[in-house]
Amino acid sequence: MLHIENAYKVPKVDVRGYCCNTNIQSNTAFRGFGGPQGNFVAETYMDEIACEIGMDPAELRERNLYQEGDVTFYSQKLDHLTLKRCWDECKAMSNYDQVKQEVKQWNQQHKWKKRGITLIPCKYGVAFGGVHMNQGGALVQVRCHHLFYNTFLIYQTIK
After folding, report:
1. Which of 46, 53, 150, 154 is the most buried (most CB within 10 A)?
2. Domain ranges of the chain
């Protein structure tokens, strides 16, 4: 539930979680603690809003990114926020605007086969209250498929 807004400033949030019992066990690890599911919800509503108002989804995402000093709906003040800088760097490194035009041209030339491109940010907490539970590093993988080539890998060590 704490990831329902992903990296976007959402002024009013009303979210409710429900625990459910099932007759089968999970076949996957619980590493995300619901974060990926919350981010999926956020990206779904951002796409829906962009479609409804006729705006490029990446532009809508960029306009609504958290900014330095913003406060989340769970009352956390965001200090030392690098979200916009990361967004700009990824956009530049991937040649997003150029690739977007190439994708658009491809789609105009091909009636049945289509391609797509998007930029999606991710705000994700990487710490627990107990120091012994934290991990020493994180692998951040940024993939840009420039019409199915160019891949960037960024490794960041968290100190």
Report:
1. 46
2. 35-156
Is pTM beyond 0.85 here? no
Angle between helices 96-109 and 83-93 (to 10 degrees): 50
E strand or H helix that includes residue 57: helix 57-63
Helices in 3-53 by DSSP H: which ranges? 35-53
Cα gap 69→80, rounded to integer Å: 8
Q: 58 and 119 in contact (C-beta within 8 Å)? A: yes
- For the chain, the residue count is 159
Q: Which residues of the chain have pLDDT under 70?
A: 26-32, 125-159
Query: Which one-letter amino acid corresponds to residue 85?
Result: R
